[in-house]
Design the sequence.
C-alpha cells in the first residue's frame, strides 16, 4: 500500500475514516475504557494504513490544543493552520511551561472576571484569558498571555498604562480599551478617548470607536465598523461580521466546554456572519447548526467535529 497523507482523507471514504478515528480517540479519552478495547483499537489501527493516518491527524490536532506554546498569540498561527484545523487552548494554568511568566489573573471556560488593579484601574477578562501586571513608580505594564481583556484606566500622566500582546503594545494615559489575542491576529478596540498602538516600529493613534488588527506580521488599517460588536462579549453576546468560520470556532472554544475542531481548511476559511447569545451556553452548538451551513458531530463532551452541511 502506498503512503497515505492528510489529503487522502477529504473524500467520502476519508470522512468515514475521520469519524471512525474520532470515535476511537474520544473513547480512549475515558479512563474507564477496558483493556479489551485497547486490543480492538490496535487491530483497527493496524488493519489499514489510512486508519493510522486518520487517527494521527485527530491526535495531532488535539495535542496542539492541549499544550500552551512558549510564545503568545500570533506565534500560534502557523502551528494551528498547518494542522488543517482551528483549535483553542482549553485551559490556562496547567499548561504553562518553564520560562513563561505565569499569569497573575486568569479566567476559565465561559467565565468573565473583573479585576481591580493596584492603581485603581480595572481589567475585565473575557473567557479563557490571562494577564500579568507590573506596576511601578514610572510605569504600568500589563502582559496579555491569552484571550481578551477590557481595561478601564485611571489617569496618571506620570505613569503610562501599556498593554503588551506579542509584538503589539497599546498605550494610554487614561481611557477604556480592549486588547485581544486570537489564533489569527491581535486586536485593539478603543471605547473611550485615545490609545497609541505600536508594532515593529509602526505607530497608529486610535480614538474612540476605532479598532485595528495586527496580522501577517504587520498592523492593518484603522476600522470603525466592528468596534462595538467586538466588545459584545461584555454583554454576553458574540458578534461576528463576515469572519472566517475558524475564528468563530476558536472564539466559541473559550466559552463552551470541550473542543470544536474544524478539519476542512476551506470550511475554516469560509466567511460567516453570526450573533450568538452566550447566556445559554448549552444552546451554543444548536445555534451554530441553525445559523450556519455546518453540521456538528459529537463524540464525547470533550470532542466535536465541525463539517460542511451536505
Sequence:
Amino acid at each position: 500500500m502506498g503512503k497515505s497523507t492528510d489529503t487522502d482523507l477529504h473524500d467520502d471514504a476519508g470522512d468515514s475514516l475521520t469519524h471512525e478515528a474520532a470515535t476511537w480517540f474520544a473513547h480512549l479519552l475515558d479512563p474507564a475504557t477496558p483493556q479489551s478495547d485497547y486490543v480492538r483499537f490496535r487491530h483497527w489501527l493496524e488493519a489499514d494504513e489510512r486508519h493510522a493516518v486518520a487517527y494521527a491527524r485527530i491526535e495531532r490536532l488535539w495535542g496542539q490544543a492541549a499544550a500552551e506554546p512558549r510564545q503568545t498569540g500570533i506565534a500560534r498561527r502557523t502551528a494551528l493552520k498547518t494542522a488543517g484545523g482551528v483549535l483553542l487552548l482549553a485551559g490556562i494554568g496547567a499548561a504553562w511551561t518553564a520560562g513563561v511568566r505565569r499569569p497573575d489573573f486568569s479566567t476559565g471556560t465561559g467565565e468573565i472576571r473583573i479585576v481591580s488593579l493596584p492603581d485603581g484601574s480595572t481589567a475585565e477578562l473575557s473567557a479563557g484569558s490571562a494577564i500579568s501586571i507590573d506596576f511601578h513608580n514610572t510605569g504600568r505594564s500589563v502582559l496579555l498571555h491569552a484571550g481578551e481583556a477590557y481595561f478601564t484606566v485611571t489617569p496618571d500622566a506620570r505613569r503610562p498604562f501599556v498593554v503588551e500582546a506579542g509584538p503589539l503594545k497599546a498605550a494610554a494615559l487614561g481611557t477604556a480599551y480592549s486588547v485581544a489575542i486570537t489564533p489569527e491576529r491581535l486586536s485593539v478596540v478603543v471605547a473611550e478617548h485615545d490609545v497609541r498602538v505600536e508594532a515593529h516600529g509602526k505607530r497608529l493613534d486610535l480614538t474612540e470607536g476605532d479598532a485595528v488588527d495586527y496580522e501577517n506580521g504587520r498592523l492593518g488599517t484603522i476600522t470603525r465598523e466592528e468596534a462595538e460588536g467586538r466588545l459584545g462579549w461584555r454583554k454576553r453576546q458574540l458578534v461576528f461580521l463576515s469572519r472566517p468560520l475558524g475564528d468563530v470556532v476558536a472564539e466559541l472554544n473559550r466559552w463552551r466546554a470541550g473542543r470544536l475542531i474544524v478539519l476542512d481548511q476551506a470550511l475554516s476559511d469560509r466567511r460567516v456572519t453570526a450573533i450568538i447569545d452566550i447566556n445559554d451556553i448549552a444552546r451554543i452548538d444548536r445555534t451554530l447548526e441553525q445559523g450556519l451551513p455546518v453540521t456538528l458531530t459529537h463524540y464525547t463532551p470533550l470532542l466535536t467535529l465541525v463539517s460542511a452541511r451536505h
Q: What stands out?
A: Residues 1-11, 66-99 have pLDDT under 50 and may be disordered.
